[in-house]
Amino acid sequence: MTELAQERRLVTSIPGPKSQELLARKSAAVANGVGVTLPVFVTRAGGGVLEDVDGNSLIDFGSGIAVTSVGNSAEAVVRRASAQLADFTHTCFMVTPYEEYVEVAEHLAELTPGDHAKKSALFNSGAEAVENAVKIARAYTKRTAVVVFDHGYHGRTNLTMALTAKNMPYKEGFGPFAPEVYRVPLAYPYRWLTGAENCAEEAATQAIDQITKQIGAHNVAAIVIEPIAGEGGFIEPAKGFLPRMAEFAKENGIVFVADEIQTGFCRTGQWFACEDEGIVPDLITTAKGIAGGLPLAAVTGRAEIMDAAHPGGLGGTYGGNPVACAGALGAIETMKELDLPAKARRIGEIMLGRLRGIQEKFEIVGDVRGRGAMIAIELVEPGPLLPEGGRGGRTKTPNAAAAAALAKACHAEGLVVLTAGTYGNVLRFLPPLVIGEDLLNEGLDIIEEAFTRL
Ligand code: PLZ
User: Fold this and answer.
1) Which is deepest, 82, 211, 258, 353, by most CB within 10 Å?
2) What atom of ligand 1 comes closest to residue 127's alpha carbon?
3) CA separation (Å) from 295 to 68, 155, 230?
């Protein structure tokens, strides 16, 4: 096979004719509920590009939603997963176990925050990991309530839909939802009514008040939070908020669960985003970046909490599949060898610098935020037209139409970007951590041009 050229190359319009044919087949054969952001059908991918059936090569600022951090088909992932495929594909770890599962658990104990004794259990998807974290916390505390936050996203299964804040598209028509789930405010600095400087303190006070007055802290099994709200719009909780909530959990015997499914495995410039505020969660859920694109997820945490579930209480046919585990071992090897936390920090520097320049020029950019290779811009309505023909400042009114139009313009130019946000008004960027700086800058040029044309 020829080397995949690290270049953007457009030979048809996007999507091209072959992709359009496949899209028609998709529409006939695949349920409508399974949506598609950009209907180019991919044949090969790696580094910072995706190649499609029409011969186009697109720059990837999505990583399949923060999954291919080590790049698509990363050498060590392919090598180890292929060898495993040839040896055996499945035994079910609960029936006859294998070493790769144990080795992944050992790596998780070493890499996740805190130097206490840790154990892990492996699953197939992020949602499954979050569900199991809740099961484990309930078994350990013998309590039932679960606290989650505004703008939170935790999955699409019944319990994780209940944990997820946003109705459309995740929950609409799919209820009733699991009980004993309580939502409290998140410290969202850009939208905090009394100002970003008051946000951490006031949001924590409100959240804790609601927990103590409406639920009773002694009834709460777990507080589940993303260190940066991903689907909610890459909201970094105001500094100080996460430590306050972690402290409150500790004082009240509540299991503090960090959902690092999107933020984890080098994405934000650390192995885990919790590290930036020195937080040591009791349990941490991981998935996405862990295995370079193979389906794997984990719950890792304090050994005494993880061991609270009775033998046979946790598992599943495929959880910790040997091929996925081998992929994870290859991905972790790559992250260490290439120092991907440092690569993520460098990507963050470049992106934040360029996007802040765009923010100065265009008043529809309300906020630029994020860490490492998890960066977003929040779009707002422009200020009112002034008599002299100019615009009067910025509003904070969410502008979902601009996010959609900008994403569409980027797609047409061969740049894969995603949207997010409770208000649908966030453009988010999640490039593979191995993307070349030339491609990164070319992608940023396309974004800037899209603003200019809008
Ligand atoms: N927790 C923090 O980001 C998955 C969702 C895409 P699964 N995010 C992408 C979509 O629209 O379905 C996610 C996450 C956080 C949990 C999950 C769920 O992980 O592997 O998609 O189940």
Assistant:
1) 258
2) 22
3) 11, 15, 19
What's the CATH code of the domain at 431?
3.90.1150.10
Q: Is residue 9 part of a domain?
A: no
Q: How far apart are CA 446 and CA 390, in angstroms?
A: 26
- Please, where are the H alpha helices in 13-74? 17-29, 63-66
Q: How far does the centroid of ligand 1 lie from the alpha carbon of residue 324, in Å?
A: 18
Measured from the Cβ of residue 390, the count of other Cβ atoms closer than 10 Å reads 10
- Are residues 119 and 34 both part of a single domain? no
Residue 131 has pLDDT above 90, yes or no: yes
CATH number of the domain enclosing 201: 3.40.640.10
Indicate the top mutation candidate among 37, 68, 154 to test ligand 1's pocket, ranked by most ligand atoms within 8 A of CB: 154
Note down the domain range covering 67: 17-73+340-453
- What average pLDDT is seen over the chain? 97
Rounded distance from Cα 305 to ligand 1 centre (Å):
24
Sign of the dihedral defined by the CA atoms of residues 33, 39, 44, 49, in that order = negative
How many Å lie between the centroid of ligand 1 and the Cα of residue 156? 8
Looking at the CA of residue 262, tell me the nearest atom of ligand 1: 3
Around ligand 1, the residues with Cβ closer than 6 Å are 65, 125-127, 130, 153-156, 226, 230-231, 259, 261-262, 287
Residues 34 and 89 in one domain: no
Cβ count within 10 A of residue 252: 17
Judgement on whether residues 35 and 143 belong to the same structural domain of the protein: no
Whole-number Å distance, alpha carbon 226 to ligand 1 midpoint, is: 11
Centroid of ligand 1 to alpha carbon of 160 (angstroms): 10
Q: Among residues 137, 188, 85, which one has the least CA distance to residue 304?
A: 137
Number of domains within the chain: 2
pLDDT digits (tens, 9 = 90+) for 168-226: 999 999 999 999 999 999 999 999 999 999 999 999 999 999 999 999 999 999 999 99
Among protein residues, the one whose CA lies closest to atom 10 of ligand 1: 155
- CA of 231, closest atom in ligand 1: 3
Query: How would you classify the pairing of strands 297-302 and 374-382?
Result: unpaired
Ligand 1 center from residue 385 Cα (angstroms): 40
The domain boundary, picked from 308, 337, 366, lies at: 337
